[in-house]
Write a structure and sequence with these properties.
By secondary structure, the chain is an alpha/beta fold. It has one domain: Vaccinia Virus protein VP39 (Rossmann fold). Helix content is 38%, strand content 16%. A six-stranded parallel sheet has the order 3-2-1-4-5-6. The chain is globular. 35% of the residues are buried.
Length: 220
């Protein structure tokens, strides 16, 4: 269960003004709108989320790294939890033709607005009750999603990842190492319910029996 970073370049490509995030608008109202995970969050104003969640190819290098690291081959099955509009699902299949990739997301809006090329591979569902049989996937991904769960649901979701995986899993969660990073995270986040230090996350993984790989996002 090692810590591995596959997405730092994607994360740091976004420039953030942390202070402006809490002074330009009613942060509580923005968070409430964002947590509906509808149009406001994906394609509304930037203060409520992405400000337009559009495909730009930034996940292709991540897809290639995942394929290489986990030795994926055509015919293998991959699940992306929190797939949104399916950008990573698309890029995994594009990078390795024959790879069988599915995505699940709690957002009706995101799934309905999914990329046309892979729309049939996306379904509405929750990380706490994955609609798949045991050991269905060679690799299970949960990138930037589990920190949006309450603590009791987080434990259940980690168990669900273990249940549907045949062995390999990779998750990424928001974290902080310093007080400044914690403040930046609190200023910037809109949907987080759980955010911990790396040591606390690792304790949670151990407590829940999660044996997959993981990475962290820091707001420096």
């Amino acid at each position: 269960m090692p810590e591995i970073d596959f997405i730092e370049k994607v994360h740091t490509a976004t420039k953030r003004n942390y202070l402006l995030r809490v002074t330009e608008s009613d942060k509580a109202d923005c968070a409430m709108r964002a947590k509906a995970f509808g149009r406001d969050y994906f394609d509304g104003e930037r203060i409520c989320g992405y400000g337009g969640y559009r495909y730009d190819g930034r996940w292709r290098p991540v897809a290639e790294k995942l394929i290489s690291h986990y030795g994926l081959r055509a015919g293998d099955r991959v699940l992306d939890i929190g797939c949104a509009k399916g950008f990573l699902v698309h890029d995994l299949m594009s990078a390795l033709p024959g790879l069988d990739v599915e995505g699940v997301d709690i957002s009706n809006y995101a799934v309905e607005q999914g990329m046309p090329q892979i729309k049939g591979r996306l379904k509405i569902g929750s990380a706490v009750s994955l609609p798949y049989p045991d050991k269905s996937f060679d690799l299970v991904l949960g990138i930037n999603v589990l920190h949006n769960l309450r603590l009791y649901d987080l434990e259940t979701a980690l168990g669900e990842i273990q249940r549907v995986s045949r062995g390999s899993a990779y998750i990424v969660n928001d974290s902080y190492r310093t007080e400044q990073e914690k403040v930046n995270l609190m200023y910037w986040q809109l949907t987080c319910e759980c955010f911990f230090t790396p040591q606390e996350w690792e304790w949670m993984f151990s407590k829940c029996g999660y044996t997959g790989d993981y990475g962290f996002i820091y707001f420096e």
